[in-house]
Amino acid sequence: MMEGDSVTLTCSTDANPAASYTWYKEDGTSDPRLLSEGPQMVFSSIQSSDSGRYSCAAENQLGRKRSDLISIDVKYGPQRPSVSVSPSAEMMEGGSVTLTCSTDANPAANYTWYKEHEDSPRASGQMFTITDFRAEHSGNYSCEAQNEMGRSTSTLLQITFSVIQSQDGWGVIYYQTEICAVKGSRVEISCTYTHPLGINHYDIKDRFWFTKEKDGEPVDLRTDSEYSDRVEYECYKKSCYLTITNLRESDSAEYKFTFRTNKGEKYTGSPGVTLFVTGSGLQVQVSRSNSTRLELRCHSSCDLSHHPGYHWFKNEKYIQTGSSLLVSSGSTDRYSCDLSGSSSQRSPAVYGPQRPSVSVSPSAEMMEGDSVNLTCSTDANPAANYTWYKEHEDSPRASGQMFTITDFRAEHSGNYYCEAQNEMGRSTSTLLQITSSGGDTTTMIINITRWTLLVLNPMILLVFCLWMRKKKAVSSTTEPHEPREAVEMDLHPEYENLSAQREDPEEQEDQMQWNQRETHLDGDRNKWTYFPSEPPVII
């Protein structure tokens, strides 16, 4: 299994009453180390330190049984290699120097050595030895560690060719002449001194470091109030070390080593070591180790190759110490680092994009010819890049956080989404539907017509029914072949005379002709029937 994978161990047995379970890890002692209780032990992100042999015990009121051991071997790529040099990085002509590359990896790493600005390797193997050192050998060297899980490259190590200035056998050699460190961290400065053969170790009266002079005499850092409780000295034979903790930007200075004998003889190594303290914090750099793994490295504006190591954190919880960290590609976990043994601030966390959200302005229902802006937002570090897609299309529509559609048409309608991506991974938003409310005019007209007909049809039908009824009524009064409602009157001479007196003779004649056309003789009753030519008059 690979570092960062999720691993679950399950313990089961047949027991009545039901058994309780306990997990143990073998660490080479007679008594296994108790880890946890329960039928399962879960490693959400297994680390190299989890490699080992595990067992579980099942127990109820009737007894206890132990399982066989199971081995977990976590594979991981090389951590950032460290390079050491012997005897020193400042060489005299004709001397011999050995560089050693070390890293933590499983399976074990293979090593290759390079000189800066050269494509071809200088050597292979964990150790690289330069014999008969010459000026052309000076330069910056690095080693690359590689296994089947990935590769990692060390920081550059500078090897210089110089002549050590000395006076009758007196001298000081500094391993580094320039050091850069981060505010709040710690730094170690080292040197080796020499003296004439006639002086032995017991003749050395005092050895110390300084940055200031008072009345022409160097001031021991241990007595400087600005370095109170922050300075430590260590010397082993002729090698001496200065450690400064909780660095301040005001600590930037040139540090020199001086020593003197009980005979009043003294020597100071000059020039000394220049220390630069920067206030800029740490940053996590992300690079791809292989198709599924990413390598995280702690980075600063300073070269921190002198520093012993880094602490790594996952979701604010410490997980391991090392110069680099391998994680799974596409992880949404948050990773950060700080310098081990320092009070400097932790680096900002790096993490892949969270699920993006999409907003639309002015609205998701567009009129033809309008303009619409789609905006994609997510939380990610490093900052995410955005790509826009329309559903069922393989080619992207646009790139950038904002996507603008001008002169909106019906063919622009559909579902849109954005993809956010950075070095840690990628994430896709949900679909956002954009519709055209003014482009489908035909549908709108059909809908209006349908509703209009739905309202008007009953009214038209009602009017038609009333009209037909009226027409039928009128027809029943004028149809010649149907029975008529008639007024029957006896043709009495008295009424005829009266009628003749009231009408004009010509009108009487015309009226009689009309009545003759509209009357007939009822043969059975010997009476004339006719329709009145004018409304009846009551006399």
Question: What would you note in describing this structure?
Answer:
The chain starts with 6 loop residues before the first strand and ends in a 9-residue tail after the last strand. It has 3 helices and 44 strands. The protein has 539 residues and is mainly β. The strands form 11 sheets. Strands 9, 11, 12, 14, 15 and 16 form a 6-stranded mixed sheet that branches. Strands 18, 20, 21, 24, 25 and 26 form a 6-stranded mixed sheet that branches. Strands 34, 36, 37, 39, 40 and 41 form a 6-stranded mixed sheet that branches. The longest helix has 38 residues. Helices cover 12% and strands 42% of the residues.
Topology:
Layout: E1 7-10, E2 20-26, E3 33-37, E4 40-43, E5 52-60, E6 63-66, E7 70-72, E8 82-86, E9 90-91, E10 97-102, E11 110-115, E12 123-124, E13 127-130, E14 139-147, E15 150-153, E16 157-161, E17 171-174, E18 178-182, E19 187-194, E20 204-214, E21 217-220, E22 231-236, E23 239-244, E24 253-261, E25 266-268, E26 273-278, E27 283-288, E28 293-299, E29 310-314, E30 317-321, E31 324-328, E32 335-339, E33 357-361, E34 365-366, E35 372-377, E36 385-390, E37 398-399, E38 402-405, E39 414-422, E40 425-428, E41 432-436, H1 441-478, E42 487-488, H2 493-502, H3 505-518, E43 520-522, E44 527-530
Parallel strand pairs: 9-16, 18-26, 34-41
Antiparallel strand pairs: 1-4, 2-3, 2-5, 5-6, 5-7, 8-10, 10-13, 11-12, 11-14, 14-15, 14-16, 17-19, 19-23, 20-21, 20-24, 22-23, 24-25, 24-26, 27-28, 28-31, 29-30, 29-32, 33-35, 35-38, 36-37, 36-39, 39-40, 39-41, 42-44, 43-44
